[in-house]
Design a protein that fits this description.
The chain is of the alpha/beta class. The chain folds into two domains: about 220 residues, Ribonuclease Z/Hydroxyacylglutathione hydrolase-like (Metallo-beta-lactamase, Chain A), CATH 3.60.15.10; about 55 residues, no CATH class. Helix content is about 30%, strand content about 20%. It contains nine helices and 15 strands. The strands form three sheets. It has a seven-stranded mixed β-sheet, with helices on one face. Strand 8 and strand 9 form a beta hairpin. Helix 6 runs antiparallel to helix 7.
């Protein structure tokens, strides 16, 4: 637990905050003690339990942001209204991330991990303000990564928690069926204009310098991926051709099956977007400039 601003603490995730863990944020208001996300792991959760947790808000439904929630029974859990169905209904979650379409069994892919259904006590909306007592939290709906993905701004400290708009070198992740690239782009640009002096994310940072430039570079990864596709279209190509080029993941780590599926969904979405903006066309399964 690291105090990064007055009464605001960064909770690093196990495994250097990489999947299946994430970094979380703890805010100690005079009236309410709030934990944003719960994927830090058992050991890193301990300091939060010592201080006390009155309320948990999930930025979104992904496993790495709720993995440790099973150790926090009887706490209220809030999320965005569009994320509720994926947290409360396991079948909707599996369908939304695309595992049913990909023919993958969640129990095998995430062997050893439990993905419980989580009852949501309150559904948040964009622009909502939560008073913690001396600290306040502005709710920012930032869809794209998931339909109900949330970011949060603490105006008193000019601190932005951007969750999985994580400003990492990998760039935006939209490898699930319910992810939307255009929404993601709009969300990145919206957060870029927030008057923050520090940005904390679920997997990288915190960042205090060149914040606008970091958001710009993060968005640019999308267009770099597009250019790699365009560079390979001197001849008409099927999707299978691109799947062999590791355009998104330079190396497939375990579980390889999952990484290859994420690669495929990224490419599907990238090709669809290029088609929609008129840079390529698709005919009988082949893509043309």
């Amino acid at each position: 637990m690291i105090e990064i601003r007055n009464n605001i603490f960064l909770i690093p995730g196990a495994n250097a905050s990489r999947f299946p863990y994430c970094a979380c944020l703890y805010l100690q208001g005079k009236d309410l003690r709030l934990l944003i996300d719960a994927g830090m792991g058992k050991t890193n959760l301990a300091p939060c339990l010592e201080k006390g947790i009155d309320l948990i808000i999930l930025s979104h439904c992904h496993l790495d942001h709720r993995l440790t929630l099973t150790r926090l029974p009887d706490r209220q859990v809030w999320c965005h209204e569009k994320e509720t169905v994926y947290l409360e209904n396991h079948e909707h979650f599996v369908k939304g991330i695309g595992f049913l379409r990909g023919g993958m069994e969640v129990k095998k892919v995430f062997e050893g991990y439990t993905i419980p259904e989580i009852p949501i006590q309150k559904k948040l909306v964009d622009g909502q303000r939560i008073d913690l007592g001396g600290l306040s939290l502005e709710v920012l709906h930032t869809p794209g990564h998931t339909p109900g993905h949330l970011a949060f701004f603490v105006p008193e400290e000019k601190l932005l928690f951007a969750a999985d708009i994580d400003l990492s070198a990998f760039g935006p992740f939209y490898g699930h069926d319910f992810a939307e690239m255009d929404d993601f782009i709009r969300s990145i640009r919206m957060l870029k204009n927030i008057p923050a002096e520090m940005v904390v994310t679920g997997h990288a940072g915190p960042f205090e310098d060149q914040l606008a430039e970091r958001f710009t570079a993060y968005e640019a990864v999308i267009y770099e991926r597009e250019q790699r596709i365009l560079d390979l279209l001197a001849l008409p190509r099927p999707l299978s051709f691109f799947l062999e080029k590791n355009l998104v993941y330079p190396v497939y780590r375990e579980p390889v099956l999952l990484m290859k599926w994420f690669e495929q969904v990224h490419l599907e979405k990238q090709l669809n977007r290029l088609t929609e903006i008129g840079k390529i066309r698709e005919q009988e399964g082949l893509y043309f400039l």
